[in-house]
Specification:
alpha+beta, Glutaredoxin, 4-stranded mixed sheet, 4 strands
Length: 245
């Protein structure tokens, strides 16, 4: 008897603009994604979480980002969003606490509200430039989405959600994920927005749905960027030893 491959997985992060674009492209081209693909959050852990991960032998894969790469990401995302006919509003992250939105998403998943919160948070961050690591902003975003904000805002202080979050970050290590977005299907790995075609091809060939294969061409236009975000090196994505994440 043949064994069906493991469920397709997408590692995403509210921090990364490439993750935002991958989510948009994935669900536009493969509307069944939320039912077929397992979404797993990935974020830079705070002090207590990092200490626990180190104790588990699952250190977080992050190195400081260079200024050159930061500037490239700003220009690259501008090209990618213009090619898609959308506009990015760059948030200015100052001491972000990434547990706040990601643990809130885990709490929402327990309540069957993860899709609504995911859409609301990425829209708040990348379309309005909101600081979604601020519990007050998270509360407002949840209320606007018609969700009860109490369990979502309180997730960061919930020991059970904290433990679930640690398990998620340990899984990042065990899956050898090193950049965002990161897709897996069985033993196959696909890193980055430009690997979405390969992921979708393998998923659809396995009979899990239908998807298009067209991708938009990128513009090469030179553009001005806000001074506030130019100085936020490393704020919009994790850097990795492997290069662009």
């Amino acid at each position: 008897m043949s064994r069906r491959p493991a469920r397709p997985v997408l590692y995403f992060s509210f921090r990364s603009p490439y993750s935002w674009l991958a989510l948009r492209d994935l669900e536009a081209r493969f509307p069944q994604a939320p039912e077929v693909v397992e979404y797993r959050p990935w974020w830079e852990p705070d002090g207590p979480s990092r200490k626990e991960l180190d104790a588990r032998g699952a250190p977080f894969p992050y190195i400081p980002m260079s200024k050159a790469k930061h500037l490239y990401i700003l220009q690259d995302v501008k090209r990618l969003t213009e090619a898609r006919g959308i506009k990015v509003s760059w948030p200015v992250d100052i001491d972000p606490w990434w547990e706040v939105p990601h643990l809130a998403w885990l709490a929402a998943r327990r309540l069957g509200q993860d899709r609504r919160l995911l859409a609301a948070l990425v829209a708040a961050r990348w379309e309005r430039g909101a600081n979604i690591c601020d519990p007050g902003v998270l509360r407002a975003v949840a209320e606007e989405a018609g969700l009860d904000p109490a369990p979502l805002v309180g997730a960061v202080d919930d020991p059970a959600i904290r433990a679930e979050g640690l398990d998620c970050l340990q899984q990042v290590h065990e899956d050898d994920a090193f950049g965002i977005p990161y897709f897996t299907y069985g033993r196959r790995r696909y890193w980055g927005l430009d690997r979405l075609d390969g992921f979708l091809r393998d998923v659809t060939e396995a009979g899990l749905g239908e998807a298009g294969t067209d991708t938009a061409d990128e513009d090469a236009e030179k553009s001005g960027l806000p001074v506030g975000v130019l100085n936020r090196i490393g704020a919009y994505d994790h850097d990795t030893a492997g290069g662009c994440g």
